[in-house]
Amino acid sequence: MKICILSRNPNLYSTRRLREAAEKRGHEALVVDHLKCTMNITSHRPSVHYKGEELRGIEAVIPRIGASTTFYGTAVVRQFEMIDVFCLNESVAISRSRDKLRSFQLLAKKGIGLPITGFAHSPTEPDDLIQMVGGAPLIVKLLESTQGKGVILAETTNAARSLIEAFRNLDAYFLVQEYIREAQGCDLRCFVIGDKVVAAMMRQGKEGEFRSNLHRGGTGHTVKITPEERSTAVRACQIMGLNVAGVDILRSNHGPVVLEVNSSPGLEGIETVTGIDVADRIVEFIEKNAGRMSNKTRGKG
User: Fold this and answer.
1) Model-wide pTM > 0.85
2) Looking at the structure, do residues 225 and 257 belong to the same domain, yes or no?
């Protein structure tokens, strides 16, 4: 099988591991920078070109689309869908998961546990938004935030008012969420492939840090997740229409709540902590499904 990995950097751990796993299982793996692709958008013979040549014979695509390149990256994925190439995660599903507001609305509609979340275009009465999520302390989160960037803890009502006013003046879109005290700076990263959680770890933020992201100095260790947490992670992935995702969950007093569904989850942390060959599991999933699954995103929206 000829597999195309859409990634801007072939030397990234996740990209390198996926390529190694594919080649180890006897496949040809081609790393393609999606920003350097050009597309021939036509009804009779659509195509994708890379470095001046048409990409031919591609049987499966693994999108590794960064947040900053979502628009063009999903356009390239969509072009492959047009020519009936199996895409591990499809364009609509990636777009859903990247839009935090949209993803929360879809998850809430299906009854997935979430932190209480408020959203407003121009909140001239910030106290209403603050009280909506239970008051301070609370989290203010930019819609474009990734890896914990643009996520701020407001410990007092005055601090929350100031943050909301600052973001409003910047004309920035943001969410306000309840602060889950009982999580104590920990979250769960559940790595979902298909209908299974294949690996899970608990991430702990460094001392004095409420964000647990490994990129921000957090640490990870193995954890046994509950059946409810496992079910929540799989359902969240399916609601987005993703085949592969990293689902971040907090343990709250009222059960597991989903923080994010990541369509391009990194492999380094989860493989290092758990010792599970996640890249191999991903390629195995492609082998089993590329020939029979059509490019039609599950669900609506």
Assistant:
1) yes
2) yes
